[in-house]
Amino acid sequence: MSRTSRLNCIIPPYLLKKLLKSDDSEVRQAALDTMLTTARLRGERAVRASFAGMAAPGNGRRTVFDCQQGSFLPSAALVRTEDGPASVDESVNRAFEGFGLTRDFYQEVFQRNSIDDRGMRLDGYVHFGMKFNNAFWDGQQMVFGDGDGKMFGDLTGSRDVIAHELTHGVTEHTAALEYHNQSGALNESMSDVFGSLVKQWSLKQKADEADWLIGADVWTPGIDADALRSMRAPGHAYDNDLFGKDPQPDRMSKFIHLPDTEEGDSGGVHLNSGIPNKAFYLTAVGIGGFAWEVAGRIWYESLKVSGKEATFQDFADTTFQKAGELFGAGSAEQSTVLAAWQEVEIQITGVPAGIARARSLAAANGSAGAGRQDGLAALTTQVAELGAQMTALAREVAAMKRSR
């Protein structure tokens, strides 16, 4: 099975494994059933992958089905359509509204026509399985479990979770980032980034007003945890007796090396995504305003031109180049991107270490005298020159590829 067509689940495997050690037999059983069902679905996905991209276009029309605690999707009952009335089932309505919110975000902000940019239908299935502790995108539709009611609640309850999963579809139809190691962690990060942006867009929040949490609504009230992940502070989303401390790293010196297996989270894709997540957060708050307008545009345009095996370094370089193309070489936007990646210990190729930090310090103290202003001007010029050199080099490489 292609690594781009794996089952993308919001609850990472290392959290479900923690539940197998719970003192509560019902919690253990729900976690085990979830893991076994997920393993079976991955096998089915291998068959369905050959039909990927065959979903009929439908202008992003939404349809929601009720699995009625079953796990065989073809037997699910149709319960809400684009033209039909609201349901008495709030899970149905939340899924339907979350689909519409995500679809409208991509259309209005990036002029993208649904997930595949060709009007792909948005099909969702609620009440999947018995106490199923997950929600996932399988390449064609999104499926929601109800949770076990003790650790996890109804997975339709989080709009950023819905946007996160649907963004896996956007990634499939753009960069098609392979779902393992660094490219897989980037895949997860893209979903966190745009999942958070959809939530911020719906609330009309500026970057400094947002909580930057992913899955804050998936835990039951009795669980001492803020969210599944924190983009503002990777590694600090939760810390409790059952799940332990959030293991996400926030910089390359803390990168977690795991085997590229299902048990190893495909090389730690849900863990190491904390590094590019932090870079985006720093970019967004550094630029300020509404994060989807500038930082989101840079990331989206970079996703569209990235290769399927892109590393963190590759993507960092691409965002720096795109920021220069969109907002000018040496612009404040490009320098903020540079500083953000440096903060997570990824140095943009060809840019001397520390230049962004020096520029930020000069800007912060610019009123201290003309000498600092001259230093800022010099640094801005240097960033502009380096950006222009990278752009020219990228064009040369592209020309060489076309001539082959």
From TrEMBL:
<dbReference type="Pfam" id="PF02868">
    <property type="entry name" value="Peptidase_M4_C"/>
</dbReference>
<dbReference type="InterPro" id="IPR052759">
    <property type="entry name" value="Metalloprotease_M4"/>
</dbReference>
<dbReference type="InterPro" id="IPR027268">
    <property type="entry name" value="Peptidase_M4/M1_CTD_sf"/>
</dbReference>
<keyword id="KW-0862">Zinc</keyword>
<protein>
    <recommendedName>
        <fullName>Neutral metalloproteinase</fullName>
        <ecNumber>3.4.24.-</ecNumber>
    </recommendedName>
</protein>
<keyword id="KW-0378">Hydrolase</keyword>
<keyword id="KW-0964">Secreted</keyword>
<dbReference type="Pfam" id="PF01447">
    <property type="entry name" value="Peptidase_M4"/>
</dbReference>
<comment type="similarity">
    <text>Belongs to the peptidase M4 family.</text>
</comment>
<keyword id="KW-0645">Protease</keyword>
<comment type="function">
    <text>Extracellular zinc metalloprotease.</text>
</comment>
<feature type="domain" description="Peptidase M4">
    <location>
        <begin position="98"/>
        <end position="172"/>
    </location>
</feature>
<keyword id="KW-0479">Metal-binding</keyword>
<dbReference type="InterPro" id="IPR001570">
    <property type="entry name" value="Peptidase_M4_C_domain"/>
</dbReference>
<feature type="domain" description="Peptidase M4 C-terminal">
    <location>
        <begin position="175"/>
        <end position="346"/>
    </location>
</feature>
<dbReference type="InterPro" id="IPR013856">
    <property type="entry name" value="Peptidase_M4_domain"/>
</dbReference>
<keyword id="KW-0482">Metalloprotease</keyword>
<dbReference type="GO" id="GO:0008237">
    <property type="term" value="F:metallopeptidase activity"/>
</dbReference>
<dbReference type="InterPro" id="IPR023612">
    <property type="entry name" value="Peptidase_M4"/>
</dbReference>
